Amino acid sequence: MALSLPPGLTPPEIAFLCEMELVTIIPRQRLEGVELLAGPIRPLHPPHRSNIPLWLALLLKRQRRANILPPPWLNTHSLTAILDHETEHAETFSPPPRLPPQPSSNTLPTSPPFLPHSTADAAPDALPYHWLELGEMLLEAASDDFEEADNVRKLLRGLREVRMAKLRSGVEVLDAGGGFKMNGVGGIEVGEGRAFITGVIDGLRKIAASREQQRKDRDQEELENGYSGTANYDDDEMDMQ
Amino acid sequence: MSAYYDVDAILTDAQKVPCTFELTVPGLGFLEGNMSGDMKQGSKVELPLWLGEMLALSQSLDTSSLVTIDPPSALSPRVLNALKADPRTVDLRALAPHFYNLGARILELFDEEEMIEVLSQTFKARAALIADQAHNPRGALGEGADFMRGLDENERQLFRAAHDSAKGVRTWMTHLKNK
């Protein structure tokens, strides 16, 4: 009857999407360029840096053909600063990285996997969308490329805890018709919070269903009686919040 | 509102609500345990919600309905006051296994703004606690055991959802290490 998978993406699926992110590597071997559906990969010339998708970087790293340069936000200094920001601002998440200026008409527009949020010249003070997945994968595959891998791992865990606690405490402000600000929340966090948050909203809507029905009936009546209802409707909306 | 085959909806409808008969009904005494007698006017009987609702809403010829429904004891003012005082300590499962669904059905019949407010606040406050329990792997045996036993069916589903998604992420992380 029902689909066996829950709605949304599972963590492995989110991680799969994350593997499209560009990371910076220092190749150890000369490699020919490859033409792929997702775009060409330029020839690798050691010791010149190159930006390639994460899946290829992990593959080359496992074969010891390249070293990965961790993005600037993935070190103890930046993560500590972000963690401080998270604990100081109990209400909001740390802001996502700024988007580049609107590309001019003759360049290709950029979308998340192709934004250089995780390359060596990314902004050091903001967590990109795939921060947790990327961080975990890099720490697993290339921990020897980090200066203090254990501390970075500890900070990532700390950040995850702080942010999940915020996401959970967000239900206090939820309403049957209300919203919840999720600016800066990462991909895997959305996947983890989805089932719970939608469950809470569904439950609240069920409880307030009779009120909603009343409001609908009233709106219907006002619509039939003439145009005078619009101002009232706004007032009601304000009362609901 | 709910699907025809939804087990939870069926179980919600099977919960008993107190009803008062407004008319004397011949031969209906078996509802009271009186096998051959009549149902006297003014007698109070606990009827399943679906039956009580049908009898209360069906209009007879002289426009007075057969029974009137009273709010069930699970939603009495005493319980609502307890929920207002502290939503976390009330054992909802003991009151009604489908507490919120029952509340929603009752609210379809009665117009009570305050009850909506109390139930919403209760649900929110308890949801936050459920989330904490779901993310804390030893929560089921620790200090929250009493609270977890008192969850109603909706809240249990919520707990399962939150627990499963947290588990999914943890499994992915350990899988990453074993690769």
UniProtKB/TrEMBL annotation, chain A:
Protein's UniProt keywords contain Nucleus: yes
Region feature Disordered, mapped onto this chain: 88-120, 209-241
Domain of life: Eukaryota
Signal peptide limits: none
Keyword Cytoplasm: no
Single biological process term from Gene Ontology: chromosome segregation
Compositionally skewed regions (Pro residues) per UniProt: 94-103
Stored InterPro entries: GINS_A, GINS_bundle-like_dom_sf, GINS_Psf2, PSF2_N
Keywords for the protein's UniProt record, in alphabetical order: Chromosome partition, DNA replication, Nucleus
Compartment annotation: Nucleus
DNA replication complex GINS protein PSF2 N-terminal domain boundaries: 10-69
Domain GINS subunit: 73-207
GO CC aspect terms: GINS complex
UniProt-listed Pfam families: PSF2_N (PF25005), Sld5 (PF05916)
Function field: The GINS complex plays an essential role in the initiation of DNA replication. Has a role in chromosome segregation.
Family statement: Belongs to the GINS2/PSF2 family.
Oligomer and partners: Component of the GINS complex.
Protein name stated in the entry: DNA replication complex GINS protein PSF2
From TrEMBL, chain B:
Pfam family, one: Sld5
Any GO BP: mitotic DNA replication initiation
Alphabetical keyword list: DNA replication, Nucleus
Single GO cellular component term: GINS complex
Protein location: Nucleus
CDD domains, alphabetized: GINS_A_psf3 (cd11713), GINS_B_Psf3 (cd21693)
Ranges for domain GINS subunit: 75-173
Record-annotated DNA replication complex GINS protein PSF3 N-terminal domain positions: 5-56
InterPro entries in the record: GINS_A, GINS_bundle-like_dom_sf, GINS_Psf3, GINS_Psf3_sf, PSF3_N
Domain of life of the source: Eukaryota
Membership in a protein family: Belongs to the GINS3/PSF3 family.
Function, as annotated: The GINS complex plays an essential role in the initiation of DNA replication.
UniProt subunit comment: Component of the GINS complex.
Official protein name in the record: DNA replication complex GINS protein PSF3
Species annotation: Decorospora gaudefroyi
